Amino acid sequence: MKENTEAAFYQTIAQPSTAEFRDRGSKFIAYAYPIESTEEFKSLLQGLKKEHPKAVHHCFAYRIGTDGNNFRVSDDGEPSGTAGRPILGQIDSKQLTNVLVVVVRYFGGTLLGVPGLINAYKTATSLALQVTPVIQKQVELKYQIEFDYTQMNEVMMVLKQFNCTVIHKELQLFCQIRAGIPVNRLTEVLYRLNELQQVRTEKCK
User: Fold this and answer.
1) What span, in angstroms and rounded, lies between the C-alpha atoms of 77 and 155?
2) What per-residue string of b and e applies to 51-90 under the rule 16 or more CB within 10 Å gives b?
3) Are 42 and 81 in contact (CB under 8 A)?
4) pLDDT digits 0-9 by tens, 121-142
5) Among 42, 44, 48, 176, which has the minimal tally of Cβ within 10 Å of its Cβ?
6) Torsions phi, psi of 187, nearest 5?
7) SS (H, E, C) 58-118
8) Which DSSP helix (H) or strand (E) runs through 119?
9) Phi-psi region of 112 (alpha: psi -120 to 50; beta: other; left: phi over 0)
10) What local confidence, expressed as pLDDT, does residue 7 receive?
11) Domains (ranges, CATH) in the chain?
């Protein structure tokens, strides 16, 4: 039974957080964010680069999804392996996903060496992840649901009953809803929706 629970839920952070670590004059500011996509990551990173144009490095790591394959690390000019990997290591040690951490560094004039850098990026990340609550969320698969306006109540009732997330909706005479369906209730939800006349469901690409 435990395996099923693990597949149906994942852990992430509740809200963005920030923390600062200093070592020999250098300042490391870690920003942690809950994210759902690489597009979100790109826009958050751009925002931080604009906010900190004088910082010497904007190092980061993120992990998205539950299959373990969607992650990225960047040392952004620091010696290889001293920034991105230690940041990801902290995300993984808390068993988190759908999380981005960017650590912005202001150089203080003294070289920290490889062990010093690893420690600084690791500590800054750890501090940022400590100040935001960890929450459990259900793993969802995204589906497009199309139906006639008259069926709105029936469709919404099914989505509500099975705790689905409405991501986007266009409600006209002919309605479209993009919804996240909990992976452990998928069969039931699709069965109930397909039982309704003229309701089309399609998995989002």
Assistant:
1) 51
2) ebeebebbbbbbbbebeeeebebbbbebeeebbbbbbbbb
3) no
4) 999 999 999 999 999 999 999 9
5) 42
6) -60, -45
7) EEEEEEECCCCCEEEEECCCCCCCCCHHHHHHHHHHCCCCCEEEEEEEECCCCCCHHHHHH
8) helix 113-130
9) alpha
10) 67
11) 2-136 (3.30.230.30), 139-203 (3.30.70.1110)
Residue 71: φ, ψ to 5°: -145, 160
Angle at 153 between CA 147 and CA 155, to 5 degrees: 50
Per-residue pLDDT of 53-94, as tens digits, reads 999 999 999 999 988 899 999 999 999 999 999 999 999 999
Compute the distance between CA of residue 112 and CA of residue 131 in angstroms, rounded to an integer: 26
| β-pair partners for 104 | 29, 58
Q: Residue 89's pLDDT is what?
A: 98
